[in-house]
Amino acid sequence: MSIETLWLVRHGESIGNVAATRAEREGLERVPIDIRDADVPLSPVGEDQAGAFGEWLAAQREAIGTYWVSPYLRAQQTLTIGLAGFEASVTADERLRDRELGVLDLLTWRGVERRHPEEAARRRHLGKYYHRPPGGESWADVALRLRSFLGDLLARPESTALIVAHDAVVTLIVGLLTGMPEEELLTFAAAHPVLNASITRVDRADSGWAVASFSDVAHLRVGGADVTVHEGSPDVQHPGGSDVRAH
Prior knowledge:
about 250 residues, alpha/beta, Rossmann fold, 9 helices, globular
């Protein structure tokens, strides 16, 4: 037996999400947060969302054979709160970390246009999938490390696995499993944002992988947690054509 059902969970709202949304609304060039990406924690709303995720997980966890999580704090907190003391085998894997934006990290699209206009122009030329900021990663780079991760995960004997990570990771895993080419993947990402603490399910059948549900937040409403949408999402192309980091 090997993995047949894969649950993909985005971390709950972080203080970086809140700061990025504030920066966009106030027209700032830089997101006002001074914390290393890996150390950005959940906001109080994010903690509530993780609790609602835990209520959903309580009904599913006996069937989940293996848990995987990004090493970044906001993802770790989401899974820890979600498991709520339930003993489970959890593996942190650096290949599940968020996309690295290098010199563009913490800049809004306005900041990129004003401080690195050459990178904004290069991104418009190369497109979102292949543009690699200096010191950072393109979507193709993230896809490469996720191919490596999936090769290890899908060879495991369990039938069901759950991953807690980041919006770009969720979108790219879905794209890799279902075989979306660049244009289709970017169209899908633009139309299907990955919401905080949302749950995506992908199933494998004889004909290949298929998405059973994407970015579902029904459990947040049931659990009384806010559904949050932030402007500073790496999956949103802003007028300047540049990515914005929303930790």
